[in-house]
Recover the amino acids of this structure.
């Protein structure tokens, strides 16, 4: 029997395939990790914004989680859009105590500016889910919310990463600099060491789903047994190439290209 690495995403959808569950599954597939998904919300969205959101009933989210965990191996898991506290509590209950690397992409707002989770859910995520995770991957606005800090320099990014680990109990924090100007610099702080990952900024509007793709790539690499540092290093390369070779699809922020890199 063939051994296979398995990754799970718990997130919302994007019918245009650029972000959310669809981006996660494409990334898992490209990185040869068997992809599984639990859907939290069905989102009508495209490259221009969010048109509507339908939340999956709580009992159905719980049943999907049970379907996966009762039957399938999960070598790494990630969350994306979790719209409200009730959903977070179910996920918290189901992932607590599991010895599975857990990547949180603390999705709050889409590139278009549309809110994807409620205000009180943002607090709940910080206070109750962060202590469970192996790593959390905020962009600048998400890191600003989590820490209450103004983040506009590389130095404040590093301070935010330290605060997320030491004050909120995340296993590690990857603060992403896509929303700053200049090079695309991310910092990974694991409680002891600060690591920097830098790529040249690509001049494109096609950045829809970059955070989903990056966190899914990290999840897939971790499912293969790579260390967090190795997974972030390779994930950064994967997302950079996916942006570099992105598609001019739609009339807004186009999607990244998940075929851009094929390596494990
Ligand atoms: N224009 C760009 N050129 C190169 N890398 C980018 C660009 N925009 C974002 N990135 C990188 O893509 C990843 C996703 O970051 P970011 O855009 O900050 O997150 P999110 O998609 O969650 O808002 C990070 O590694 C970031 O540095
Ligand atoms: C269902 C869903 N989840 C997450 C996002 C946001 O994705 P992200 O990768 O942060 O990309 P941007 O939309 O910020 O470019 C989403 N839009 N939909």
């Amino acid at each position: 029997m063939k051994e296979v690495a398995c990754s799970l995403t718990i997130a919302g959808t994007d019918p245009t395939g650029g972000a959310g569950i669809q981006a996660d599954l494409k990334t898992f597939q490209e990185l040869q990790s068997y992809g599984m998904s639990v859907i939290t919300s069905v989102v009508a969205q495209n490259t221009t914004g969010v048109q509507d959101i339908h939340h999956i009933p709580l009992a159905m989210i719980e049943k999907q989680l049970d379907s996966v965990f009762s039957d399938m191996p999960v070598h790494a898991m990630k969350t994306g859009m979790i719209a409200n506290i009730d959903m977070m509590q179910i996920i918290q209950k189901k992932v607590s105590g599991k010895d599975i690397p857990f990547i949180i992409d603390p999705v709050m707002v889409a590139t278009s500016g549309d809110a994807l989770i409620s205000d009180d859910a943002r607090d709940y995520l910080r206070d109750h889910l962060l202590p469970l995770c192996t790593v959390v991957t905020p962009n600048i606005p998400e890191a600003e919310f989590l820490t209450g800090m103004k983040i506009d320099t590389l130095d404040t990014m590093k301070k935010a990463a330290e605060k997320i680990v030491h004050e909120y109990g995340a296993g590690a924090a990857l603060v992403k600099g896509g929303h700053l100007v200049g090079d695309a610099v991310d910092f990974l702080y694991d409680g002891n060491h600060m690591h920097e990952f830098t790529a040249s900024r690509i001049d494109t509007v096609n950045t829809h789903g970059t955070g989903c793709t990056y966190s899914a790539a990290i999840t897939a690499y971790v499912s293969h047994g790579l260390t967090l540092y190795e997974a972030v290093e390779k994930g950064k390369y994967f997302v950079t190439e996916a942006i570099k070779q992105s598609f001019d699809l739609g009339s807004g922020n186009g999607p990244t290209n998940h075929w851009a890199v094929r390596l494990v």
User: Anything to note?
Assistant: Residues 228-244 form the longest helix (17 residues). The chain has a mean pLDDT of 96. Strands lie at 6-11, 34-39, 41-46, 49-55, 76-79, 102-104, 135-136, 173-176, 184-189, 194-199. The chain has one domain: 6-255.
